[in-house]
Each structure stands twice: as structure tokens, then as C-alpha cells.
From TrEMBL:
Protein name, UniProt field: Endonuclease I family protein
Keyword flag Glycoprotein: no
Cross-referenced InterPro entries: Endonuclease-I (IPR007346), His-Me_finger_sf (IPR044925)
Pfam families documented for this protein: Endonuclease_1
Length: 268
């Protein structure tokens, strides 16, 4: 099933145009995120629509945690070849952070390969590669081996120096910032994990916070930055297709913040 979306997200208004020579050029002003409508609102999300705050978070947790199919960590390789397939080249995947299109066959651990990036660093909550949070496709993405290593388990924040072959990503001593085109994707993946894993299934209760350097604690920061990224970089067709493939073919659950990015602000 394809999502039918009525985009009113990130509306931009122009100030009154200057009509006299020498007047300042019009400026752009972003309006707050407006509600989106999807084909899943009357079915999959019917118990969440209209709610806010902790009530919305609790409802979404129940929805995305029910009747979920889990896969092994080894099965993630083939799954990512489907979820992240290059729409212009079926032999390739698109890599997170760098945006590079790379051959599916180059999966591994050597320089020039791509591997499985946990956007919610697996050390933050110490879940490793275990079936569940360690294999959840909604936060696993293909990434260049070296770029993935540079990101490591750093929290997310703005700033830093350019990452070599990182497509515009930056890094400093305690944080990593993806290239602009991936910032919203990362925010929505991190916040999905915070709703999906609430400590009621034997795993840690994952939550966003306002810190970097969270180490092995089950937190990822910075929430304020992730919220800003969610607004600045709305869901793309690639991201929406990925959500559908995971839902229809693999886990049979959805990332609600791809379908309803305005729910980020409604909860946090």
C-alpha cells in the first residue's frame, strides 16, 4: 500500500516583494509544521490520531510494537539491499551520510565497502546486535565503512569539521552531524527508536536527551537539534519508500515520524 500524503509540511511564505529599486530583497519565513494525512490514519494509526504528548507516545508505542516480525543481524544485509536500493540503479544502494551510490555486492568491512550503521548507536543502551533493537531496520542503514567508523557511537549535534568522503557531514570530539539531506532521516530514526523501545521488552528504555557524550547510557542527543533537523529536512520519496518496504516486506511496522513528522513536536 502506498501512502497518500497531502503535504503541507514546511510551508514557506514570502514577504511582500520589493517594488522599488534599492529596497531589500524578500526574505523567507518558515511556518510551523502542519498536519499531514496518510492512507494509514483510519487503519494503522486510528488509535493515535488526535492525541498529543505522552498519550500519543504511548499509543504509537503500542501500534509499532504489535505483531512485529524480527530478523537476524545477518539477514539485515539483504534487507538493506532492498530498503535502500538506488532508485536509479537496482544494483546499488544509497549510503547514509555520504549519499554515495555503491554496488550492493560491496558489503563488508574493508575500505571501499559499505556496512550496517546503527543510527542509534548500539552501545547507547548496550543492546549490541541482538535481535530486536540491534536488528531493527528502521534505524539501520548502509554506510561507507570509513564514514561509519568516524561516526562511531557519537551523539548528534551541529558543528565540527568536514568528514572525508562524508558528503558534507561534519564531526568533532563529541558529536556527529550528517549531511543536510540526511539530517531529518536521522532525527526520525532516532525518535522512532525512543518510541519503539520503552523498557517493557527486556531491552533498555531508549530516550532522547539534551546531552552529547552519553556513552553506554540509553540516551541519544541532542533532542533540540534532532527536532530542528526533522523540520528542516522533511521526509523524501526515498525515505517514504523505505518505510513502505519495511512495513510490507520485513518488519510489518512503520516509522510514524515519516508518515507524520509533525508528531515529533506533538510528543516532545
Amino acid at each position: 500500500m502506498l501512502v497518500t500524503r497531502m503535504h503541507r509540511w514546511k510551508t514557506v511564505a514570502l514577504t511582500t516583494a520589493a517594488v522599488l529599486v534599492g529596497l531589500a530583497a524578500p526574505t523567507l519565513t518558515a511556518t510551523p509544521a502542519a498536519a499531514t494525512t496518510t492512507a494509514y490514519d483510519s487503519t494503522y494509526y486510528k488509535n493515535a490520531v488526535g492525541k498529543t504528548g505522552t498519550t500519543l507516545k504511548s499509543s504509537l508505542h503500542t501500534i509499532i510494537s504489535t505483531n512485529v516480525t524480527k530478523i537476524s543481524y545477518s539477514a539485515v544485509w539483504n534487507a538493506l539491499m532492498a530498503t535502500d536500493q538506488d532508485p536509479n540503479n537496482s544494483s546499488n544502494v544509497i549510503l547514509l551520510y555520504s549519499g554515495v551510490s555503491r554496488a550492493k555486492s560491496l558489503n563488508g568491512g574493508d575500505v571501499g565497502d559499505w556496512n550496517r550503521e546503527h543510527t542509534w548507536a548500539k552501545s547507547h543502551g548496550d543492546f549490541g546486535e541482538v535481535v530486536g533493537p540491534g536488528t531493527d531496520l528502521h534505524h539501520l542503514r548502509p554506510a561507507d565503512v570509513q564514514v561509519n567508523s568516524i561516526r562511531g557511537n557519537l551523539d548528534f549535534d551541529n558543528g565540527g569539521s568536514a568528514v572525508t568522503n562524508g558528503g558534507g557531514s561534519t564531526v568533532d570530539s563529541d558529536s556527529f552531524s550528517p549531511r543536510a539531506a540526511d539530517r531529518g532521516d536521522v532525527a526520525r530514526m532516532i525518535l522512532y527508536m525512543a518510541v519503539r523501545y520503552e523498557g517493557d521488552d527486556g531491552f533498555a528504555d531508549l530516550e532522547p536527551n539534551e546531552k552529547v557524550g552519553n556513552g553506554s547510557n540509553p540516551y541519544m542527543g541532542k533532542l533540540s537539534v534532532l527536532k530542528a533537523w526533522n523540520e528542516a529536512d522533511p521526509p523524501s520519496a526515498f525515505e517514504e519508500n523505505r518505510n513502505n518496504v519495511i512495513y510490507n516486506t520485513y518488519q510489518h511496522n512503520r516509522n510514524p515520524f515519516i508518515d507524520h513528522p509533525e508528531w515529533v513536536e506533538a510528543i516532545w
